UniProtKB/TrEMBL annotation:
Upper classification of the organism: Bacteria, Pseudomonadati, Pseudomonadota, Gammaproteobacteria, Moraxellales
UniProt name for this protein: Uncharacterized protein
Domain of life: Bacteria
Region named Disordered: 1-23
Length: 516
């Protein structure tokens, strides 16, 4: 059967005009739940309003994952297996199962190598509100963020270690693969200043490669770029912009084979982002490539950046901090939040649940449920696939860096008016949204810490008390973990506040909630 579709796709049937992403998402989550709760798995399969009710099932995965240290591995194995058996791959009008994609006939990718023109020594600083934070000023800001609950202590400690070890930033000995190299929240700009060997994978697109080539040109790194044709060494920059690149969704096996043939140890970073259902597909493409390359090259490391607007197991002290913040609200804050909650029919300002869940390791953990329904189940599924692979890969002996990055005012976020307004008003609840340049600097350094520091939880030789602690360490959630309210019931009011403070002259009244 021929088709006009190309590359990695959600499955379709003869009766469908277009694929049902909700159906596939339900099936994957239900399969993951089946390994720990049969009844809830059945309920997920029968859920008719997946678009609104999905947070319930994602939270259940975490709840069951906490109970014992084998459950997260079972959940991840079942979920990934179902995901890889659910998608399809189209090539030359023919449909294939995605699990068979690496066996397809491929056209080998060629490599273009370019060296940056700078001879500058590696340097790291954090751009923040018009300043370049380094040394003591950076250490002071880290302490401020830690004291305010914006970052976890382990995050601040990791960056303190980076300040103490500037030699870590000479990456001339590392070959780093960036899937979605030109990503706004990605580390390309910093890696280009740290002498890294960068294998950049991004779409064949003149605008994208103009950005990548310009970044490399002004740095001290070496670029390795894929191309479907062999280009001469004296190719002009204009030619390179037109011809470099590879598509993760349509050239999945080609990219995997290209990387597997490298003579170097690789550090693979899954940072590509696309809107809507494409984000699930690109996460699946990256997962398939990372799985294939890791099998061929077992010393490969993996890197992911988690979103704070998800649901996580968290340490006991995080739950206690949230509970204390709720208890210490002033009378005026309590009165106003209760009034607004009543007017909104309990939609706003629902209390954060502060229950602790005992695990079989003798410790208890809480849950930080920061899912934002507006981001949708596809976004949640894409990020869950990444968490599952990270959990399994580390358990199987790979170095895995997976850290929660703060809410960041990237274009992909701020083009949603509701999310933009919510971030503008997040300060009302002691939550901080970071600018892209600040997030880039922080998260790039955190990755280097995980690659260099043998005491990092990324190191599989370091024993964890529970697999889910991998996502707890190093978290910069911007304060979302420690808010007094269930995040998605406070953020709508934060959006009202953010819009009002930006557009209307009623700031003093709205600030009463924060300053009372």
């Amino acid at each position: 059967m021929s088709s006009s579709l190309e590359g990695l796709q959600f499955p379709t049937t003869a009766s469908q005009q277009k694929p049902s992403t909700s159906k596939v998402g339900r099936e994957i989550i239900a399969e993951a739940l089946a390994s720990v709760d049969h009844n809830l798995s059945v309920q997920a399969m029968q859920e008719k309003n997946w678009r609104k009710q999905y947070p319930k099932y994602f939270k259940a995965l975490v709840q069951h994952g906490i109970l014992n240290d084998q459950a997260p591995l079972d959940i991840a194995t079942s979920g990934l297996n179902k995901a890889h058996h659910s998608f399809e791959f189209y090539r030359d009008g023919q449909k294939h199962l995605f699990i068979d994609v690496m066996s397809l006939a491929t056209q080998p990718l060629h490599t273009i190598q370019l060296k940056g023109e700078s001879e500058a020594a590696p340097e790291w600083y954090v751009p923040y509100k018009g300043q370049k934070l380094q040394g003591d000023t950076l250490l002071a800001q880290l302490q401020t963020w830690q004291d305010a609950g914006i970052v976890e202590p382990s995050h601040a400690d990791a960056l303190r270690a980076c300040v103490a070890h500037p030699e870590w930033f000479d990456l001339s000995d590392r070959t780093i693969v960036l899937f979605g190299a030109a990503s706004e929240a990605g580390p390309l700009t910093w890696l280009s200043k740290w002498k890294a060997n960068i294998a950049a994978v991004d779409l064949p697109n003149t605008r994208i490669w103009s950005k990548i080539l310009d970044t490399i040109k002004h740095g001290n790194a070496t670029l390795y770029a894929p191309c479907i044709e062999a280009l001469s060494e004296d190719s002009t920059e204009a030619e390179l912009k037109e011809k470099l690149g590879a598509n993760l969704l349509t050239q999945t096996p080609e990219i995997a084979h290209w990387l597997a043939q490298s003579q170097h140890q690789l550090d693979l970073a899954a940072i590509a982002y696309l809107d809507g259902e494409k984000h699930v597909r690109v996460s699946m493409a990256m997962d398939a490539i990372m799985q294939y390359v890791s099998a061929k090259k077992p010393d490969t490391s993996l890197m992911y950046m988690c979103t704070p607007t998800d649901v996580y197991a968290v340490p006991k002290e995080v739950v206690e901090a949230s509970e204390l913040k709720f208890a210490q609200r002033s009378p005026k804050q309590q009165w106003m939040s209760k009034g607004i909650s009543a007017l909104s029919r309990q939609h706003f300002f629902q209390k954060n649940l502060h229950d602790l869940i005992p695990s079989n390791n003798g410790k208890s953990y809480g849950i930080a449920d920061c899912l934002v329904v507006e981001q949708g189940p596809n976004y949640a599924l894409a990020k869950r696939i990444q968490q599952w692979r990270a959990t399994l890969a580390r358990h199987n002996g790979q170095r895995v860096s997976i850290n929660i990055a703060p809410s960041t005012t990237t274009h992909s976020v701020t083009k949603n008016p509701l999310l933009k307004a919510a971030f503008n008003g997040a300060e009302l609840f002691d939550v901080e949204a970071f600018s892209p340049e600040t997030t880039n600097a922080i998260m790039a350094a955190l990755w280097i810490h995980d690659l260099r520091n043998p005491e990092s939880v990324a190191n599989p030789e370091l024993k964890l008390d529970h697999p889910l602690e991998l996502m707890m360490e190093g978290a910069n959630h911007g304060g979302l973990w420690r808010v007094a309210y269930l995040a998605r019931t406070a953020l709508p009011f934060a959006a009202v506040y953010g819009f009002a403070t930006d557009k209307l002259p009623i700031k003093p009244m709205l600030r009463m909630l924060k300053k009372a």
